[in-house]
Design goal:
The protein has ten helices and no strands. The chain is mainly alpha-helical. The protein folds into two domains: 55 residues, Homeodomain-like (Arc Repressor Mutant, subunit A); 108 residues, no CATH class. The longest helix has 24 residues. It starts with a helix and ends with a helix.
Amino acid sequence: MRRSDHTRAAILAAARERFASDGFERATIRAIAADANIDPSMVMRYYGNKEKLFAAAAEFDLRLPDLSGTPADRLGAVLAGHFMDRWEGDETLIALLRAAVTQQAATERIHAIFAGQIGPLVARVAPDPAEAPARSGLLATQILGFALCRFILKLPPVVGLDREAAVAWIGPTIQRYLNGIP
């Protein structure tokens, strides 16, 4: 392994631990560099800024549920509930969304997550496989838009919804994007 590869690996390992323990906002480049036993300038050299480092270090598994036994007309509600639980329970997803608003590297990470994890799920349930990319993109608008309004912008009506009410509102829209008539 080249020295630069070793340094990058050390930075990413330290960043993952630091972001997990401190969250995006409290984690600092200096602390990550100290954890990796390198100078902070090396972190900046390889990653440019904290947002880009976060996007590179972030390992996001949406932990999509196995929908094979789910009735076709319940897919939207099941996914809406799943995403409510994921957003509520993982501050790194919120940090990635926040970073993606202004940082291209984080935006690209979100693209990869949705293409690699949501895309195949939608392709399995879409009535026409040719529509799967559009349906995946629209599903992303619902999931990301809801998360942006609830967790970042903190719009009072959206923040005030309990889990069941949120699922009742967004589940039918997700259902339509998955297998409804366009």
